[in-house]
TrEMBL record:
Transmembrane segments: none annotated. PANTHER family: 5-KETO-D-GLUCONATE 5-REDUCTASE, ALCOHOL DEHYDROGENASE, PUTATIVE (AFU_ORTHOLOGUE AFUA_3G03445)-RELATED. It comes from Arthrobacter jiangjiafuii. The keyword Cytoplasm does not apply. It comes from the Bacteria. This is SDR family oxidoreductase. Belongs to the short-chain dehydrogenases/reductases (SDR) family. GO terms for molecular function: oxidoreductase activity. Pfam families: adh_short_C2. The lineage of its organism: Bacteria, Bacillati, Actinomycetota, Actinomycetes, Micrococcales.
């Protein structure tokens, strides 16, 4: 197992991406701590993991609350003995579908503020423990790429770019402590789109059409990539991105 006896925290663990990552981590032997603001969704993922023989615990948590984030990290270490992996995949409250010139500044800035604040708080809480251990992995998730005509992402791309800047800085500062910092870039995962989204099929098709392989990453593949990135198989990887976009996002 890639993550045997590791303790992993997933913020936003009840969502589509978070749940997929949590199931993959648990399948590879990790004890998974799911944190978020939707108890029903968290418990659903936890039940799926337990039914498959894995270990999962849940906690209601607002990732914008620094004290709560720090306390939860302390609780994870108290329960498991270490905090080995931390991944933030919470929702950012972004507004899409409108040109920037038609947006309210509050709507544009919300995902930027939420992403920067929560990534900072969750990474800081985990890193304080990882520095003592002199090991650990911080994972981010994004789909940032160059804007394309006809797509209006609001502040989401700006949020992704801000998180990437943080990831680079964290990697430099935490590298001497044996802590790795990586981002998974997907370019979009059709399976993660809400079922009640009005233009879901159109958006899913646009994601696939942008790829070179004419297929997008699946939720299972996202989870598998995250498990690999968090494992010792990727021990030499840090300050980098794992491109799982099927060619939609070109590496430079």
């Amino acid at each position: 197992m890639l993550l045997n006896k590791k303790n992993a925290v997933i913020y936003g663990g009840g969502g589509a991406i978070g749940g997929a990552v949590a199931r993959a981590f648990a399948r590879e032997g990790a004890r998974v701590f799911l944190a978020g603001r939707s108890p029903e969704k968290l418990e659903l993922v936890a039940r799926q993991i337990r039914a498959a023989g894995g270990l999962a615990e849940t906690a209601l948590l607002d990732a914008t609350n620094g004290r709560a984030v720090e306390q939860h990290a302390d609780d994870v270490v108290a329960a498991g003995g270490s905090l080995d992996i931390s991944m933030n995949v919470i929702q950012h409250g972004d507004v899409q579908g409108l040109p920037m010139v038609d947006m309210h500044v509050e709507d544009y800035l919300r995902p930027v503020s939420t992403a920067v604040q929560t990534v900072f708080l969750t990474a800081r809480a985990a890193a304080r423990h990882m520095m003592q251990q002199r090991s650990g992995v911080l994972l981010a998730f994004g789909g940032s790429g160059d804007p394309t005509p006809g797509n209006y992402f609001g502040g989401l791309i700006t949020a992704f770019e801000a998180v990437e800047a943080m990831r680079r800085q964290l990697a430099v500062e935490l590298g001497p402590y044996g802590i790795r910092v990586l981002t998974l870039r997907s370019g979009g995962v059709p399976e993660s789109l809400p079922e009640d989204m009005g233009d879901r099929e159109e958006i899913a098709s646009s994601i696939v059409d942008a790829t070179l392989l004419r297929r997008a990453a699946t939720l299972e593949e996202v989870g598998n990539a995250a498990a690999f990135a968090a494992s010792d198989k990727a021990a030499s990887m840090t300050a980098a991105t794992l491109n799982i976009s099927a060619g939609a996002l070109m590496d430079r």
